[in-house]
TrEMBL record:
PANTHER family from the UniProt entry: TRANS-ACONITATE 2-METHYLTRANSFERASE (PTHR43861:SF1), TRANS-ACONITATE 2-METHYLTRANSFERASE-RELATED (PTHR43861)
Coiled-coil zones: none
SUPFAM superfamilies to which the protein is assigned, alphabetical: S-adenosyl-L-methionine-dependent methyltransferases
Protein name, UniProt field: Methyltransferase domain-containing protein
Species in which this protein is naturally found: Elasticomyces elasticus
Record lineage: Eukaryota, Fungi, Dikarya, Ascomycota, Pezizomycotina
Length: 294
């Protein structure tokens, strides 16, 4: 299976539909609020929430742009959108609307024709896209002059066993539905935003996981990623077995390739070890904020 043969919208549905009912029972609501805070929204502004999921960005954003503002949410997962729509109906929010559509094909959504937004927020989704550069360029076209895009990517040492699977898949030509490998440094996110024509780009490091009950944005800002766990080289087989039968790793689970995938996983895992033979997993996400020219 090659990179171009994957169907990203189908992958996203398969990944998120089963998680919809419990998605809010995590760190995601707090992280979404932090993304909204970084957007520095104002009353009367119009916001596009990409990969809006259960509405974790949309609803704090809608509160921030009252009165006179609006939020448009787009997601490919019908089950996630059902959760978001239920909140909209329960709270009688007429200035929030949702559409089921791929965030990589905004030009194909008739309801967006001719529309531009003061802010576009995409939380926890860019690393699911096969061509993030093209996506950011397309999204920038939906910004008003002087509008801003807020988007994030995880540190390559975050969820380190999963990115190791991604590297194995790439080596074997059987790519998984994650695309974190291109973002090895925060500068890589900055470069994509610059290539899309955005300016005054700021990249901020945040922690994702809960921080001893803290909720304020400043409590999650950091100068360097926080070490969350340490592993040994000997943990490779245990972690391989833990994840290999998950749907997302199915391209590597077949009897024709499983043993070779295990061998490459061990090899890639060993390369991650520091001088003490330890592999450090961190908690860190880079949030990029960029502005469109006048």
């Amino acid at each position: 299976m090659t990179l171009m043969q994957r169907n990203q919208p189908q992958d996203a549905q398969a990944l998120y539909d089963p998680r919809a009912a419990s998605y809010d029972d995590s760190w995601h609501p707090r992280f979404a609020r932090h993304m909204v805070e970084l957007a520095n929204l104002k009353a009367g502004e119009h916001v596009l929430d990409l990969a809006c999921g259960t509405g974790l960005v949309a609803y704090p954003a809608s509160a921030a742009v009252r009165p006179g503002g609006s939020v448009t949410g787009i997601d490919i997962s019908g089950d996630m959108l059902a959760q978001a729509e239920g909140k909209r109906v329960a709270n009688e929010l007429s200035a929030v609307r949702f559409y089921q559509h791929s965030i990589t094909d905004l030009d194909g959504l008739p309801e967006l024709e001719g529309e531009q937004f003061d802010a576009i927020i995409c939380a926890s989704a860019l690393v699911l896209l096969q061509d993030p550069s093209n996506a950011i360029r397309q999204w920038t076209g939906f910004l008003k002059p002087c509008g801003r895009l807020i988007v994030d990517v995880t540190d390559p040492a975050s969820q380190i066993s999963l990115i190791t699977f991604e590297r194995v898949g790439r080596a074997l030509g059987r790519h998984l539905p994650f695309y974190r490998v291109p973002f090895q440094k925060p500068e890589h996110l900055r470069a994509l935003m610059e290539q899309a024509g955005l300016r005054d780009i700021e990249v901020i490091l945040l922690s994702q996981m809960d921080n001893e009950g803290a909720d304020a944005l400043d409590a999650y800002r950091s100068e360097r990623p926080r070490i969350e766990k340490t592993y040994s080289i000997a943990d490779a087989d245990r972690l391989f077995d833990k994840h290999i039968d998950h749907w997302a790793a199915s391209a590597l689970a077949g009897p024709d390739i499983r043993n070779e995938a295990r061998r490459l996983f061990r090899e890639q895992w060993t390369k991650l070890a520091n001088a003490d033979g330890l592999i450090e997993e961190v908690d860190g996400v880079y949030v990029g904020i960029g502005w469109k020219n006048k």
